[in-house]
Amino acid sequence: MNAVITGVGGYVPNYVLTNEEISQMVDTSDEWIMTRIGIKERRILKKEEGVGVSYMAIKAVQELIRKTGLNPLEVSAVVCATTTPDYMLPNTGTLVATHTGMTNAFGFDLSAACSGFIYAMEVGASLIVSGRHKKVVVIAGDQLSSITNYKDRNTVPIFGDGCGAVLLEPTDENIGIIDSVLKCDGNGIKYLIQKAGGSVRPASHETVDNNEHTIYQEGKVVFKYAVSNMTDSCIEIINRNNLTPDEVQWVIPHQANLRIIDAVTKRLEVSFAEKVMVNIERYGNTSSGTIPLCLWDFESKLKKGDNVILTAFGAGFTWGAVFLKWGYDSNQESMSCTNQVL
Length: 342
What we know:
It is a single chain. The chain is of the alpha/beta class. The chain has two domains: about 1-175, Peroxisomal Thiolase, Chain A, domain 1 (3-Layer(aba) Sandwich); about 175-335, Peroxisomal Thiolase, Chain A, domain 1 (3-Layer(aba) Sandwich), CATH 3.40.47.10. The protein is about 35% helix and about 25% strand. The protein has twelve helices and 13 strands. Strands 1-7-6-4-5 form a five-stranded mixed beta sheet, sandwiched between helices. Helix 3 crosses helix 4 (about 90-100) and helix 7 (about 220-240) runs parallel beside helix 8 (about 260-270).
C-alpha cells in the first residue's frame, strides 16, 4: 500500500510586494534582485491583529475540501509543517483542523524550515501506510514576513508568505509516494538561524533591539550546501529507483533562489525549461510552502503516473528528496482553481 496525493489546495495573500518597493526600503534594485535571486515579487499577508499563518492554512484547506469534495469529518490526522506558527502553543495544526471542520482529526506541527513539506509528506505517508489512517491532510506554509528584517538588504528580497495543502489517501496501485531520502546536520545552525525567541534566548528588550527575532543567513555558504545536498539527494533517489533523467517527468525544487534551482537541475541533467516547476519569480521563498504552491500552480500539467521528484534544503540544516508517481489527471474543476488568489 502506498500513500497518494488525491488533491491540492493553496493560498497566497493578495498584497504584492514588488522589487521597486523593496528598493525604497534598502539599497537594492530590481535588476540586482532578478540577477542574483530571480524574484520579481512576493505575496505578503497584510494581517489584522490576531491573523497569522493559520489564516493562510485554513484558506488552503478550504480550497482543498471544495476541489476534492472531501468530508472533513473523515480526516483523521493533520500534519502542519511551519516555522512561523501562530503561537508557541497551541499548535497551528490543531487550530486549522478545528476551523475547517476536521474535528475527528488530531493535529500537530512539524518544524523543518524549508524542508518542512517533504518531511511532512514522509510523516503523512507513514500514517497512511500504517493502515490506521485513511485520509491525512498535509499542510505546509509560512508567514516569513513576520520574521524578516526589512532593513537587511541580504534577506529582505527573498521571503514571502503562502501556504499549500494536500490530501493523502491509501492506494494499492503503483502510484503515490514511492521513496524518500531525508537528512539533517545541526552544524548548519550558525549559517541560517533565527537567533532569539526560543528557550535559549527568550524575548527581551536586547533581543528585540538587536533584530534577533528575524532570519539571519550567510547566503554564500547556504547556497553551496543547498546545491550539493539537494543534488546528492536527488541522485540517490534516481539511482535507488533505477530511473534515468529521461524517465523523470518533473522536478519540483524548493524555491529559494533561481540560481540554486538552475545549478541543481543542470547537475541532474534535467531540462530546466521542460521539466522543472518554477514560480519563485511571483511568490519568492515561502519556506515550507514553496513545493505545495508549485503543485497548486502546475496541477493541470500533472498526469497520472508521472514520475515526480521533490527536493528541498532548509535551516538546521535539513534537506532531502521525495520520489512519487502522480496519482490523477487533473479534471476541469481542479484546473479552474489553479493560480486562484482568494
